[in-house]
Design brief:
The protein is mostly helical and 146 residues long. It has two domains: 114 residues, Winged helix-like DNA-binding domain superfamily/Winged helix DNA-binding domain (Arc Repressor Mutant, subunit A); 30 residues. The chain contains six helices and three strands, in the order ααβααββαα. The chain is globular, with a radius of gyration of 18 Å. The relative contact order is 0.11.
Length: 146
């Protein structure tokens, strides 16, 4: 239980103080749009893929997309061949904003992590990846057995 409490402490950290022009939700959503866009030949991200990858409620993603659209950082397009599919892509302004925000977060992380011994960080990262896989497999087993 102590491990879960430590994870919860990290989850409660307010990283949005690093983001000048956007909320943490907008940042995460824009990063997901970037990620999904790289996999699409047209450079678009399907809303259903964004929702699935973020493991968020569709209504929450929809609210964030609306906010991003109002700021003119994304644009939506409806697939002409299948009107049930909607895609989003970053506008030029949106790409600039997410690049700036990513730079701010990266600079912060670099400053903070310089305080940690690189060898310890490497061990911690390796251990957390292993722990993640153990948890993932355990949850998958629990899903199928119960």
């Amino acid at each position: 239980m102590e491990l879960l409490e430590v994870f919860r402490m990290f989850h409660k950290l307010n990283f949005s103080v690093l983001l000048q022009n956007m909320t943490q939700s907008e940042f995460v959503t824009m990063k997901q749009i970037q990620s999904c866009s790289r996999e699409d030949p047209r450079g678009r991200a399907g809303i259903s893929d964004i929702v699935k990858n973020m493991k968020s409620l569709p209504s929450a993603v929809s609210r964030t997309l609306k906010s991003l659209e109002e700021k003119e950082w994304i644009c939506r397009t409806v697939d002409k061949s299948n009107r049930r599919n909607t895609y989003v892509e970053l506008t030029e302004e949106g790409a600039k904003e997410i690049q700036a925000a990513t730079g701010q977060v990266a600079a912060f992380m670099n400053r903070i992590l310089q305080q940690v011994d690189p060898e310890d960080m490497e061990k911690l990262t390796k251990f957390l990846r292993e722990l993640y896989e153990i948890f993932r497999d355990g949850l998958e087993d629990a899903k199928h057995s119960g």
